[in-house]
Amino acid sequence: MAFSQRLGADFYAKIQAEIRKRMDAAGIDLLLLDSNDDVIYTTGFSHYTTERPVVVAITATDAFLLLPELERTHAAHQHVAAEAIVYFEFPGIDPWHAVLGRKFAGFGGTVAYGHAISLARVEPIEGAFPNAERVIPSNIVQQMRLRKHPEEIALHREAARLSDRMVEVGVEMIREAMRKGCPLPSEVEIESYVSRHAMRTMHEEHEDIMLVQGLASGLVYSGARSAFPHGMPTGNPVKIGESIILSLGCRVGARASESERTFFIGEPSKLQREHYAVACEAQRMATAALIAGHTCASVDNLALAYIRDSGMSEYLLHRVGHGMGIMFHEAPWVEGGDQTILEPGMITSSEPAIFVPGFAGYRIADTVLIAAEGPDSMTLYPRKLEDVIIA
Amino acid sequence: MGFSQRLAPEFYQRLHRDIRARMEEKGVGLLILDAADDVLYTTGFSFRPNERPVVLALTATDAILLIPELEREHADRQDLAAETLVYFEFPGIDRAFSLLARSIGEIGGDIAHSYGLSVGRAAELAGLFPNNRVMPTDIVARMRQVKYPEELRLHREAARISDAMVQAGVDLVTEAFRACRPLPSEIALEGHVVRHALDIMENEHEDIMNVPTLAGGLVYGGANSAYPHGIISHRRIQPGESFILSLGCRVGGRAAESERTFVLGEPGKDHEKYYAIAQEAQRLARQVSSPAAPAPLPISPRLPISANRAWALISSTASATAWALPSTNRPGSRPATRPFSGTG
After folding, report:
1. Which label site among A203, A338, B73, B83 has the fewest CB atoms less than 10 Å from its CB?
2. B4-47 pLDDT per residue, tens
């Protein structure tokens, strides 16, 4: 039996029941969610975000999904856990908010929307519910999404397995070229090959693939380019004597994981070894500190202090990590300014790194589940120095 | 000398002057733009947006780009039309907007931001500037609707490459069909045309602006193509069905797209009927899109729009293939659900 990516109707019933409980506690009668990720979380509907609003509307008894005509059939095919309300187009002669308002004609309670909504949508919502007692922002769903349900963890774990496999396949590709004495592949070629491989694996081993944006992708950079952590892969071939970062991830059932390792092409120099040792130890410390009850800030402070104490503060460009869920990046933030207390069921990345300008970047990233028993790294690709030398 | 994707400093100087004139008219002392596209438009800074704010703060005299440490080097290399102000991280012990507010100091007039700003950020801004009115404005949104000549040049180049992507996609299908190889899947086709576009840029352009979705598109065959915003799959293109190549790219951060519908093999009566309507509707739309010029020249004029020519591209190949194959291997005789893999 193949691995099924799609969560069942019972999962969405559970999520919506939990939302209703929190709505009741907060005195909210109608909750509107318009972000792509909240829509996936509450209904299982995956779509390309455009200017056309797609909005989930949850009441004490019902769940609706407001969609443009363009998405009607697409939603029907996805067995979405909400009843469709369709408007024709954006901005529309009969605009989306008018269609939404008519569905709830005479509504007099409290309407809430997510904090990430743009101001441009607030006024139309207020206009659509002229009799509403209040129209307010709410973080109900953002809070719920911090802790993952077991069904979601199973998806993350499968995404983690595939992400590790992507790293492995990238390494095999380079190793194979070295063995045959062929020109080494370029960053773009590696990225494209491993992404394609992950998608093929899903196709072969999964059913009900949830086609989301960023299904499988990553960043691949080698040599001095790897010192720019948010650069883009280039057509430059990998070179012996350089290091390369494979930062790869995917989303299974719209749940993200990423696996990232730094490799050496040929034997590393003394300087490369020193850099790697600091990055590796900082990451070990960060992962070990991802313990329920700790604050996110404390984990960041610990690992970044180690890098600073190693005399490499000038090579620090970012925090330890970020939460992962439907999005690759979401709350909580494993960073000095986030005092969120880690709880079992949260998933974060662990990826402190150093970037030596003009030379190389060194980053190891894992996807870590905060479990009651301690940190549970779902990505497992080896990281000892001898494991990351491609020769 | 390659085609340069990057707009010159004079472009941004004029743009800032035009924005400031509108700010002054409306009594706006500080304009805050936090959308990646507004930042690109006003400073030339291209980046992958994430939760870390990247914000242009424009006053009557200054242009300040607020960026995270992670983007410092990246910004330095892009020769931006703004001075940078760097915060370390998000959410940050010292939050990005707090640093910005401190750096800007007292401001006379209103503080305006785009309508796309999130409710959360709007509240944060209002808290940081308690003595000013903080409100949304469409100054930049309106300006962006009419392109400057320098931008049109970029759009036109993006249109040329988009057409070339469509052609590359057609060629790939045609070659596979002709050689009796398995036809490409939607994903493979998309990967191929994206690579083609990137190769063109790599070979012919300088200063490539690495924006998200430098080149991309949607490719669907058969019944999949009836879902215009579906997500492409591993399904292979099948003989006898139509497929849509909806492809585009961004040159210097300026987008164009070219999209055509093709039939692999001879079009059936239904195909012809539906295509004729779609084609006529599109012709009408182009005609009325510019009242001043009843038949405007499309920005992307190089690919045939004519149904006959689009059909011909593939159907002539189909005939040639059919002619070359034993009858049992003719594409048309294959069940539509099986990938075509003629053995000859």
Report:
1. B83
2. 999 999 999 999 999 999 999 999 999 999 999 999 999 999 98
Residue B120: closest C-alpha in chain A: A115
Q: What ipTM was predicted for this assembly? A: 0.92
How far apart are the C-alpha atoms of A323 and A340, rounded to whole Å? 11
Token look-up 């290399």 returns B77
Whether residue B311 has pLDDT greater than 60:
no
Q: How far is A170 from chain B (nearest CA, A)?
A: 18
pLDDT tens per residue across span B136-152: 999 999 999 999 999 99
Closest CA to A58 of A110, A3, A94: A110
The Cα of A56 is separated from the nearest Cα of chain B by a number of Å equal to 18
Residue B70 lies in a domain: yes
Note whether residue B43 is domain-resident. Answer: yes
Query: Residue A188 and residue B233: Cβ atoms within 8 Å?
Result: no
Q: What is the pLDDT of residue A214?
A: 85
pLDDT the model gives residue A331: 98
A134 touches chain B (CB under 8 A): no
B343 part of a folded domain: no
Token pair for A237: 């071939």
Q: Which among B14, B315, B317 is positioned nearest to B178, based on CA atoms?
A: B317
A329 touches chain B (CB under 8 A): yes
* Number of helical (H) and strand (E) elements in chain A, helices listed first: 10, 19
Contact yes or no for B70 and A333 at CB 8 A = no
Q: Which residues pair with B112 in a beta bridge?
A: B31, B135
Rounded CA separation A143/A114 (Å): 11
- Residues 256 to 315 of A: which have CB under 8 A from any B CB? none
Q: Which has the closest alpha carbon to B177: B340, B343, B344?
A: B340
The answer to whether the Cα torsion of A197, A245, A228, A254 is positive or negative is positive
Spell out the residues 6+ positions from residue B9 whose beta carbon is closer than 8 angstroms to its own.
B79, B81
**Quick one: tokens of A267?**
């034997």
Choose one of A90, A117, A143: the last residue of a domain. A143
pLDDT at B291: 52
Spans in chain A with pLDDT lower than 50:
none
Question: Is B339 within a domain?
Answer: no
A24 min Cα distance to partner chain B (Å): 23
Longest dimension (CA), chain A: 74
Q: How far apart are CA A336 and CA A357, in angstroms?
A: 24
| Two structure tokens written together for A328 | 């690759």
